[in-house]
Design a protein that fits this description.
alpha/beta; Rossmann fold; 2 domains; six-stranded parallel beta sheet; 16 strands; 27% helix; 23% strand
Length: 351
Amino acid sequence: MKGYAMLKIGETGWIEKEKPACGPLDAIVKPLCIAPCTSDIHTVWSGAIGERHNMILGHEAVGIVDTVGELVKDFKPGDKVIVPAITPDWGTLYSQAGYPMHSGGMLSGWKFSNFKDGVFAEFFHVNEADANLALLPENVDPVAACMLPDMVVTGFHGAELCNIEFGDTVCVIGIGPVGLMSVAGANKRGASRLFAVGSRPNCVEAAKYYGATDIINYREGDIVKQILEKTDGRGVDRVIIAGGDNDTFDQAIRMLRPGGTIGNVNYLGEGDTIRIPRVEWGVGMGHKTITGGLTPGGRLKMEKMASLLATGKLDTSRLVTHVFDGFDKIEEALYLMKNKPADLIKPVVRI
């Protein structure tokens, strides 16, 4: 089969590989729609998870089941499915403890384009199909559904990590596709005043559509100062970090009220440490909580997200700004994600 791969750090290309084998609990899926991710960019060009050789990229897909193992009960060849980016091993002790995303060690629930070949291929393997696939609702566009495997669940997880309560004041730092879904998730969980930090006009308009009440443009001055001015010096109850860099934690701590929570879903692709401001963290005793997490993955979460699309409670069409047709367009879409033109939010390739 053909696939688009990370050949080594800083280099990508088309390769030929054997079609993956199907275990008794597993499935082989053909992609219907795929989407490149900023994580792919970090993996290849920053070497964020270390060297990988000839590893097929991609972890966001809607597909058609090609083959299932003899023990798979709920899926059959021909089914259209949403494939979570995170596909844990559900029988492990980590999963039973409530952390399936780390089911075989740190971040090991993230298998595609991390520990095994990803979805940018003519066929790809899904472990534990009954637990890691979700049927695509008949009334849901596969292009729209392609935002569910990572962008929606990761953005919503930022809101979950913060434990947003009704009426909370929330700041979302970074309004790319994940940040926009953090805005949507915070809005759905009951945020009142909802600050969104970003500058690109299309992202700003989308943030307002998803529930942002205030836009903080980092090009117009220090974002902490802007937040404190707009909250009469009190700061916000919750911060979701969905963009920025290692120094963004410093800003998040400074704008957060005592007793508040930071939820990070940003992939930190470079550097060795993050900075925490000592005084603003209450010299270590400010009850300012920092959490960071990979979305849990799996079928149940994906089915719930799909139901939001099917019932019209969530519209992901605002995320998709570029649609390509044809398997051979994967490379072009990936490089579009790398170069990030001003009008880009998220590209999708229909196959």
